[in-house]
Amino acid sequence: MKAYGNTRNLPPRAGAMVEALRGLGYSVEAALADIVDNSIAAEATEVRVDFSWAGESSRISILDDGFGMTDGELERAMQLGAKSPLDARDPSDLGRFGMGLKTASFSHCRSLTVATIKARCEACLRWDLDALEENSENGWILFEGSKPGSEPFLNPLKEQASGTMVIWEGLDRIVTPNYTSADFSDLIDRVNAHLAMVFHRLLEGPKPRLRILLNGQAVLPWDPFMSGHPAKPWASPVAKTSTSAGPVEVQCHVLPHKDRLSQREFDEAAGPNGWTAQQGFYVYRNSRLLVAGGWLGLGQVRKWNREESHRLARIRLDITNTADAEWKIDIRKSTARPPVSLRTWLTNFAEDTRNRARRVFAYRGAPAPRLGSEPIEQAWRANHGKSGIRYQIDERHPAVGAVLETAGQYLPLVKAMLRVIEETVPVQRIWLDTAENKETPQTSFAGEPTSEVVEFLNIFFKDMVNRRRMSVEAAKRQLLITEPFQNFPELIASLPDDASFSSRK
To answer: Which of 42, 50, 18 is CA-nearest to residue 127?
Structure first.
């Protein structure tokens, strides 16, 4: 032992220390995810999370079928700081600080019971915060056995050959004054959404690595990247790089615009916190999600914020558990900050993804043509000049061009009208309405009845065939690449294709 000079032994007061640890800021859903991490580390294939409502006597339990612990292993697991974050860990280990079980639990309950079975041997220990506070001079008192009267709650564990059960009782940070069973039900829904997101890669596939049951119902994975969706406009190849703390993988995704999704798909893809909050990087360690969205403090000139125009951008980022210190992973596994050596590399990926997502968002989900490589004929164009951006009506758009070609003596008046429209586009109002409503204003006949769309289609179709002498086939092809009619291929296909159309009034 090194000589440090005169020393004193000054252990923290147990009750005061634990009460301070309760303020780490765990949400209930994040705390339960931390406990599921321990089950995964114990090679569990099934985790059962149960919420039992009984007012102030409500409880939450977590039961897994992992390999369990011996009495000595359980005692070390219940000890605060039993494992140093500097210690070498198994590559599959999801923990780091040796604090998660305790601090996550203490954040929400006053009684933490952990029971376990391994090799037919049972062990059960309990922290009781009230007892620690009442006996603050007696140190860190750890009780053997469950809370008096709670013994029956351990019965599901005793039916297994191995596994571990965690019980939270005295939910003083959850069941607060005026808290109701409806609030408890809402909490269950939030926990379901969070677990579905955090562990989605472990829950996915025909043979998932993990099964989570919440009050008996299977938690279904929520894939933030909408993998395999036919309307998804873009996903990058997987990029890899090596660092001193292990390999890093990145894959960028742009999700479909709302116009390309059903209402149910759109609502589901929004995620637990909504479209705007869920944009950005998704940082994984051993397939477990640590950070769900945000731009990790990156940006050009200034840090990027979450903005509506980039809400379709999501980036998968994988690190190993040897990179925790370098990435500044916090004890709650909720924040991460990339090392300086990777910031430029990640910024380039993020900037490209943000730009692509913005284009999809701005063009209302139709940036790509429907027919081969033919570009969409758009009614508006954005001109970038020294004085800024100006939005102008494109006179080459078939509908605009048809009016100009037939305007005759009224051509100057029509052009003057178009200029007035260009100069009075309510840009600021559109921006404000979009920001406040979290949704772009409706365009492209959104919400309009089919009959109205058909009426306008017929007007332009007749002009193409009768005045411009286009063939029926050519006219339909033109409409398929003309904004906003490219969104209605079925209606275009239903237009008459016989020669008699040209004689109709």
So the answer is: 18
